[in-house]
Specification:
By secondary structure, the protein is mainly beta. The protein has no helices and 13 strands.
Length: about 200
C-alpha cells in the first residue's frame, strides 16, 4: 500500500492488514481405522505466508502528519480428533504439524512500514508493523478411543520450521523538517509456542 499527501498542509495514513486462517482437521467419530500388517498414518499440516507492506509520503510546505500501519496475522490449526474411535495397525502414527513423509509446517509472516515526511515546520510520521503467528497442533483422544499397535504407537505435535524466529517486523520513519528525526520499528513479532495434546483419562 502506498499513500501520499502534498500541498500546504497534509495528513495521510496508509494501512495494510492481511489475515490468514488455515484449518487442517482429521476427525474420526465412532469409527475404526484397522490394518493388521501395515502402518497407519494420520497427519495434518499447514503452509502459510503473509506479507504486508505500507509506504507513506508527506511532502508539504508548512506542516503535516502521516502514518504507516502494517499487520500480518496467521492462525494455523492442525487437529486430529479421535472420539470413541479405534485405530489399530502394525505401527500407528498420529502427527499434528507434519505429514507422513516428515515435512512440517511452513509458516512465516512479514510486516513492514515506512514513513517519509518533508516540510518547513515540524512534521510527524509514525510507522507501525505488527506480526502475530498462532500455530496450534493438537491431538485429541477422547471418550473411549483406543490407539493400538503391534509394534509402536506415536502421537506427536510438531512445531513448524523456524520456531519463534518466523515473524519479521521492519520499517522506519524519517522527518526532514524544522525538527528532523528518525525512528525504527522494533522487531518483536508475537509467535507463541504451539498448543499440544488433549487426552481423556480412562
Amino acid at each position: 500500500v502506498e499513500a501520499q499527501a502534498y500541498g500546504i498542509v497534509g495528513v495521510t495514513l496508509g494501512s495494510s492488514d492481511i489475515a490468514v486462517n488455515t484449518r487442517a482437521n482429521v476427525n474420526v467419530n465412532g469409527g475404526t481405522l484397522h490394518a493388521d500388517a501395515a502402518d497407519i498414518d494420520v497427519t495434518t499440516r499447514s503452509n502459510a505466508f503473509t506479507r504486508a507492506h505500507t509506504d507513506t509520503t508527506i511532502a508539504v510546505a508548512r506542516t503535516g502528519a502521516g502514518g504507516s500501519n502494517s499487520s500480518s496475522t496467521i492462525d494455523a490449526r492442525n487437529t486430529i480428533t479421535l472420539d470413541d474411535a479405534t485405530v489399530k495397525g502394525k505401527n500407528v502414527y498420529l502427527y499434528a504439524g507434519r505429514d507422513y513423509t516428515g515435512n512440517v509446517n511452513i509458516i512465516d509472516a512479514y510486516a513492514s512500514s515506512y514513513v517519509e515526511a518533508y516540510s518547513l515546520l515540524p512534521a510527524i510520521g509514525v510507522p507501525i508493523a505488527n506480526v502475530n503467528i498462532g500455530e496450534h497442533n493438537t491431538i485429541n483422544v477422547l471418550g473411549s478411543s483406543r490407539v493400538q499397535a503391534l509394534q509402536n504407537a506415536t502421537l506427536r505435535d510438531v512445531e513448524g520450521i523456524g520456531g519463534s524466529q518466523r515473524g519479521h517486523e521492519k520499517g522506519d520513519g524519517l522527518s526532514l523538517s524544522l525538527v528532523p528525526y528518525g525512528v525504527s520499528v522494533t522487531d518483536n513479532p508475537q509467535v507463541p509456542r504451539p498448543k499440544h495434546g488433549n487426552f481423556t483419562p480412562t
